[in-house]
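Illustration: Glucosamine-6-phosphate deaminase 1.
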Amino acid sequence: MSTNYKLKTEGGLKKGAEPMDIITRFERIPTYIAATAEDGAFRVAAEIAEAIKAKAAAGQKCVLALTAGKSPIGVYRELVRRHKNEGLSFKNVVIFTLFEFYPINPAEQQSYTYSLYEELINQVDIPASQVHTLDGTVPADRVSDYCKRYEAAVQAAGGIDILLLGMGDQGQVALNEAGTYQNTRTRIVALSNASRKLVASSFYGIENVPTRALTMGIATIMQAKRIILIGWGEDKSEVAAKVIEGVVDAAIPASYLQNHGNVEVVLDEDAASHLTRVATPWLVGTCVWTNRFIRKAVLWLCRKVNKPILKVTYQDYIDNSLGQLIEETGQTYDKINIQVFNDLQHTISGWPGGKPNADDSTRPARSFPFPKRVVIFSPHPDDDVISMGGTFIRLVDQGHDVHVAYQTSGNIAVHDDVVLQTLDTARECGFEDKYEHFRKLIQSKVKGQPEPLELRKFKGAIRRGEARAADRSFGLNDDTNVHFLNLPFYETGSVKKGAISQADIDIVIDLLRKIQPHQIYAAGDLSDPHGTHRVCIEIVLAAVNQIKQEGDKWLNDCVMWLYRGAWQEWDLDMVDMAVPLSPDEVIKKRHAIYRHLSQKDIVPFPGDDKREFWERAEDRTQATAQLYDKLGMAEYQAIEVFVKYPIF
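Result:
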């Protein structure tokens, strides 16, 4: 299924105004920016496919060194499609893998070898003898000799024609950690704690993640004839900018690629968002100045000179490469300041559902109809209160018919200890004693295999009870206005989820048609480390698009608002509605988050951020309020922000 989720951007570089050499002058590696990850994967797969065919026509082998993980999946799916539908043969292909955990059995689902076989090798016609994978079962006393033989095999194959790399969050390439020397070869390495945390969810806890790995070294990688480095999503944006525009630094091993003569970085627009030509294009070329783009530039200038909007001077514009904004728009700097101030001021509203009988010409939400029917989609059973709990409170308190739809059960995020504690409490209260039964069920689990269905159902029940309690604390009727969708894509029993199906979409369609909302709130978040948020927004948009195509008239009266998950916040230049929270509402929101007891203290997959969810939520919304204050707006305790998504 093609991606639906992409926010439209306004303004930016004027096409053709300057040559690419000028626009990309800060970039030390040739970089291609694709509109979406899907488009980027198609481009990379097309190059690999053409190389395979060219080598076959010449009667030669095409030697590929391939990465694993999430980044290359789209590339492999497109290669498989070309094999099945267009006759692309892999009989002349030789594959070398770049890395593997150590120790690990290749039959384990967490193995990178397992992943590569599942996504590519098992689905094409490559001879088994031409696949070379790093073996995580080699005895420790033979690893050094084994790695030398692997290097020799690469040379015997004639060297690597195309090497496909992903980009680690700290700039790793393959599994070469920060501090890796340029002369390293295939070897065993120690994994950093940060790297182990990133994959902890796949292993059901960091304690199960191997502490070492086998990896090609920097020198081996740099000898490839062609290197393609890929990165998708905004969580790669900061490191991508460092790799592409920073200096060569051993702390960011991917930066060594600046010294390669035939390398290209392929990013989607989200991953490229910190590159100069995207983040601050006025520094490299002539721009098209739409109102929203002007807001982006002025807010950047305010941060740069550390001034509120109305105190920015003409000289500030000139000294920071924004003279063209004044020249191109024909406005004086003070008029631009007032325009942006008013534009941002009008995003603020304490009436997210619209204020009845009020002039809504400058308000983000329309006043009519009132009250409104509202659906809040929450990927997990706590994202609603964490990310937009204050707005949730306002919508209920102001009399709207608010419904919450929990898209997944969230069962894999419940620790086994929570199950036993819940059962122990039930036993102490005199209810049926199931403690011993579930203790044995937990003990029977096999690492890396889906959890028993009975255990998953119980964990899902725990999260449903917590969600109901949080919703009741806001005054919501949890019998009629709380909906648990249990979308099928999620219910695999493991961290790896299934593909979106029509069954997922139909469930959302049925709910929307039943409620016929005037407002939809959904998590437009791409930085969720486990990917569920991305899938959930795709399902909602696919459902809305299908309803639109089938001509449901109620949709003409519906507005969609996107909030962020716990991991990141919208930049202010994108914000369409900002809902201020009072100190009491912040506390009420915190207490609702507390209701999710299974997610406190011992969350199985916390990521790098050690703060509890209520702390992240408060820090984020208070930081947003401080930004508004610093820009010259009124001072609030906290602010939740939203972006309007154009349904039509």
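Reading the tokens back as a structure: Residues 285-345 form one domain.
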